[in-house]
Design a protein that fits this description.
317 residues; alpha/beta; 5-stranded parallel beta sheet; 4-stranded parallel beta sheet; 38% helix; binds N-acetyl-L-norvaline; binds phosphoric acid mono(formamide)ester
């Protein structure tokens, strides 16, 4: 593995999850793996889990970490080729990426979409520019269209909690007051396809995800029908994809409640966090024994450690 910016970069999910499980059982077994190596984490957006778990993973491997909030602490970057830089941007990504590559052995980047310019967002121009100009491996800490480290942690969590070979996994849209990206559901759908789960996606009619991600998946606009006999409920809000970035509904009849969980096969409740209580899911469900959001977040460390291990082992090839 050279870079990890998409679920598509996973060559063998079973092999990756076995490694993550091995690491979870003995997180400090390879304290020299990352010796004298530095992981740079560049954030254009807020984070709690990704920021801490990815650093924790690096530290477990003996790596050093450098963290920078580029949006507030760095020079404003220019991404346009040939731009006459007479505006607000002070530094071109061409120099910035090459310079950071001299300080870091792996560069990890979080860059959310604008949710206003679909074309630009889908070009994934921030992470793509680092891939183009950096001379070291690049990891996505959530880009415009994917959050692959979250997806690995999600797949690991489902692998740990499933009681049947092919569990029924339901990805349900739920209401939220702000426009949110599509990265988490997109990567979740991709990884569940790889895992061979019985995946059902449910959302209001106007909330179809990009069909490039959902092609072949079962999709229903009837949430209760979707929940029937589910083994896992994965809740997430996303803004409209067709009416790009718009909030078309805050319908709380889509909130995950105990009544809806009662339709399932005693399903586990999952969410990537941060979660808005009593919007996405009620307190009763989130605080119930069926909620596995905390162990799910714990798995972020082992997912990241497995990915760092793969990249270091392959010497960035
Ligand atoms: C982000 C999102 O929905 O993509 C990050 C989740 C990991 N969530 C928020 O901005 C609330
Ligand atoms: N799930 C997740 O990526 O959380 P943060 O945004 O806090 O990193």
């Amino acid at each position: 593995m050279k870079n990890f910016t998409s679920v598509d970069d996973i060559q063998d999910l079973d092999d990756l999850l076995s490694l993550a499980k091995k690491i979870k059982a003995a997180p400090f077994a390879q304290p020299e793996k990352g010796k004298h190596k530095t992981l740079g984490l560049l954030f254009f957006n807020p984070s709690l889990r990704t920021r801490l778990s990815t650093q924790k993973a690096a530290l477990n491997l003996g790596m050093h970490t450098i963290v920078m909030n580029l949006n507030t602490e760095g020079w404003v970057l220019e991404f346009e080729d040939g731009a006459v830089m007479d505006g607000s941007s002070a530094e071109h990504i061409k120099e910035a990426a090459q310079v950071v590559s001299q300080y870091c052995d792996i560069i990890a980047i979080r860059s959310f979409p604008s949710l206003t310019d679909k074309k630009k967002d889908e070009e994934e121009y921030v992470i793509s520019s680092f891939l183009k100009y950096a001379s070291v491996p690049v990891i996505s800490l959530e880009g415009s269209s994917e959050h692959p480290l979250q997806a690995v942690a999600d797949a690991l969590t489902i692998a740990e909690y499933k009681t049947t070979k092919k569990p029924k996994v339901v990805l349900t849209w739920a209401p939220h007051p702000k426009a949110l990206p599509h990265a988490v559901p997109n990567s979740f759908v991709k990884v569940m396809k790889l895992a061979g789960a019985d995946l059902v996606i449910t959302h209001p009619e106007s909330y179809a995800l990009n069909p490039e991600f959902t092609a072949g998946a079962t999709i229903t606009h009837n949430q209760e029908e979707a929940f029937a006999n589910a083994d896992f409920i994965y809740a997430k809000n996303w803004s409209s994809y067709d009416e790009y970035g718009k909030i078309l509904s805050k319908d709380q009849s889509w909130t995950v409640t105990p009544e809806k969980m009662a339709l399932t096969n005693n399903a586990k409740f999952m969410h990537c966090l941060p979660v808005r209580r009593n919007m996405i899911v009620t307190d009763e469900v989130l605080d119930s024994d069926n909620s596995i959001v905390i162990p799910q977040a714990n798995n972020r460390t082992f997912a990241a450690q497995a990915i760092l291990t793969k990249i270091i082992d392959n010497h960035g090839k």
